[in-house]
Amino acid sequence: MTGSAKLGRISLLAGASLLLGVVACKDMGAGGKPGPATDANPWLTQGWDGNQRGAWYQPTQGSRLLPWAWAKALERAEDQQAFFENGNLARFRFITVPNLKNPQLPVGFAIDQQPDDQLSYTKLRWFPGQKNQEPWLGLNCAACHTANLEFDGKSLVVDGGPSLVDFQGFIEGVDAALNATYGNADKFDRFAKKVLGGQDSDANRATLTGELQKLIGWETENARLNKTDLRYGYGRLDAFGHIFNKVSQLAVYGLPAGSRPATANPSDAPVSYPFLWNIYRESQLQWNGIVEVRPKGGKPKRITFPNGKILDYSALGRNAGEVVGVFGDVVIKPNPEMGGFDSSIRADQLDELEGLLRQLKPPPWPGAINRARADQGKPLYEQHCAGCHSEKNLNGGIYDVTMVPLAAGDPGGNNTDPWMACNAVSYESASGRLNGRPRNYFSGPPTQETEALANMLTTTVVGSLVAKWQQVAEQALDLALGIEKLPKTTKAATAVSPAERKKGRLDSCFKSNSPYFKYKARTLEGIWATAPYLHDGSVPTLYDLLLPPEKRPTCFYVGTRRYNVSKVGYQTGAESGAGCPTPAGGKPDPAAPGNAFRFDVALDGNRNVGHNYKVGQLSEDQRLALLEYLKTL
Ligand code: HEC
Ligand code: HEC
Q: Which of 97-106, 111-120, 295-304, 501-510 has the lowest mean pLDDT?
């Protein structure tokens, strides 16, 4: 195919998704004009109208957790209440907003309906004659990237802000409910009646049992791979851990008995959900910068068409990776070549969602600002913070993000919790059906029998894009990362127990010089709306982050939406602070209702150390001035 023919097909598709956008504007709900927030209109002015919000909150991205018919019939493990019901889902901090198109589900829940003939573990059938387009329930971006806070008595929705969703608790809840349905005859009876309806028969019940067992088998294996004792609590998820383990699970799915199973890599480095305004302007994304939008000195991984439409294949790749992790179904084959890997990933929708994000603005501080004090804070910001956190070398609409290498033991360096960055570069697995496939799908070194998961992820993503959209994938060849396996240090090589192996791995990370053993200094626009802070969510408020590390709370509670206007973050509750006792008798704290998770900074993955960029030297007056200024960003 000639270059221009290639481009022609791409622009055709780009045009098609532009059209989709127009349709979306017509029929999506979630109205509300921009303006002062009220109960009926809790949104801040962020550049989106009701149609754009409607197009963000509930469309499918190809995420398939369980069949919608099952979801509607599923009871909680502990009683007969519906699991997928807004009140129950609110326990995990999923939210609802006015005018949702599908008000029986919270923000971020989407129904995915597509032909499933080419799919694998999400192709289930439980009655004869069942069609190939069974609707499935899954999540989309908005579940994790929409904040809801109670500011001065008002409920505010921040689009693209971090949610408080407890993903770990949610998945465990779903798995427990599925298991209880399978294991309890009364529960199964009620479930089967609802799911089968007019098709209820002994034979169909037997088939349904088998299909339920299959899904439980999948979930059980997934839980084995992710298993960790560390609790995430509200507002955190080890996204890379879950995505990596999903890739290794897909890579070996259906291999004959006796084949090497996927390697379990504990998802024990949960991170705070990042905010999404401005992301289209940054050269690197993710806490460790592993998604390169514009490599240093290189060209952005996107194409701009004459009509102004942008094909952002870096974003497509990143979002496709996210769908893999968040209940996407991908069929990894040994030699599919131009056919790619069939999958449930909805590339058109991902492009659409990304387009919306390009129009999203940071939320303005909704309270009063002490201007004189903020003016005092500005020079402090310029002096102590701007060097890392401001936009630099803005070029073609993208600026260079400052990435700061981790430096253990250097009190002035980046010595925050290293686990997210270390896991991402050091986790490996048996590569199953990816074994031997070029790392870049078409080219590059062959995938080894045991391979870095970051590489297996990019191979899977490019393979999935090939199946959707051959031309994009050809452009997307430079998505691959080329993560080198870390050299084993003596500590790593001689480790015996899991704890020692973990220490050895960290040792290798620190000695590796990996370009991704770093954390990103994001811009701080709208930072007031994104507590808790640091990549691991270990610092509850901006005020606390400006304290010397040893003065930050060592323990605090999360889960409330009640906002702390003076400290800038969520209320941590009366019990937080030194020692952090469990709230008396487990009673809710009236100042911070919902604060049900105790965050202990003493655990790996939870450390609140580091980021001590001279803030310790600030006087209390200067600290408050800087805090006031941060509200204005
Ligand atoms: C299940 C929760 C979840 C869903 C669904 C989800 N994300 Fe995320 N997202 C996260 C987490 C957690 C991170 C941080 C991962 C990391 O860097 O370690 C993240 C990171 C990102 C980043 C990087 C931000 C930055 O500043 O570097 C972008 C961009 C992003 N997500 C966009 C999206 C889009 C677009 C979608 C939907 C197509 C989506 N996410 C769906 C949880 C989610
Ligand atoms: C040397 C570079 C550097 C300097 C100077 C610096 N930061 Fe940071 N900042 C970072 C990095 C890197 C991170 C991410 C670290 C992490 O999450 O573990 C970060 C994280 C943050 C976060 C958390 C962001 C989030 O989404 O949770 C805030 C807030 C912040 N910095 C504010 C400041 C302020 C205010 C100053 C000035 C007093 C400052 N920083 C100075 C590099 C820097």
A: 295-304
How far apart CA 360 and CA 280 sit, in angstroms, is: 10
Question: Which of 64, 141, 243 to mutate for ligand 1's pocket (most ligand atoms within 8 Å of CB)?
Answer: 141
Task: Give the closest residue (by CA) to ligand 2 atom 35.
Answer: 385
Say what percent of the chain tops pLDDT 90: 68
Cβ atoms of residues 595 and 586 within 8 Å: no
User: How far apart are the C-alpha atoms of 107 and 59, rounded to whole Å?
Assistant: 10
> What's the rounded Cα separation, in Å, for the pair 246 and 269?
16
Q: Residue 532 to residues 352, 445, 456, 541: CA-CA distances in angstroms? A: 29, 41, 31, 6
**Residue 8 reports pLDDT greater than 80:** no
Q: Which is nearest to 373 in space by CA: 569, 528, 553, 566?
A: 566
- Give the residue, out of 286, 417, 520, with the most ligand 1 atoms within 8 A of its beta carbon, to mutate for a pocket test: 286
Which two tokens mark 237?
């998820």
Lowest mean pLDDT among 43-57, 89-103, 271-285, 460-474: 460-474
What's at 328, amino acid-wise? Answer: G
**Alpha-carbon distances, residue 122 vs 12, 128, 205, 397 (angstroms):** 30, 17, 19, 40
Instruction: State in Å: Cα 414 to ligand 2 middle.
Output: 9
Q: Which residues of 366-384 are buried (b: 16+ CB within 10 A; e: fewer)?
A: beeeeeebbebbeebbeeb
Average pLDDT over residues 437-466: 91
* Rounded alpha-carbon distances, angstroms, from residue 5 to 1, 149, 256: 6, 49, 42
The stretch 230-256 carries a mean pLDDT of: 96
pLDDT value at residue 11: 31
Q: Report how far residue 103's alpha carbon sits from residue 89's, in angstroms, rounded to the nearest whole number.
A: 13
Look-up: residue for tokens 């002062």?
36
CB atoms within 10 A of CB 561: 21
Q: Which residues line ligand 1 (CB under 6 A)?
A: 61, 139-141, 143-145, 167, 237, 239-240, 271, 273-274, 276, 279, 285-287, 319, 322, 326, 350, 353-354, 420, 522
Q: What is the mean pLDDT of residues 497-524?
A: 92
Of the candidates 272, 247, 266, the one whose C-alpha atom is nearest the C-alpha of residue 326 is: 247
Cβ distance 509 to 288 under 8 Å? no
CA distance 351 to 354: 5
The rounded distance, in Å, linking the Cα atoms of 603 and 612 is 19
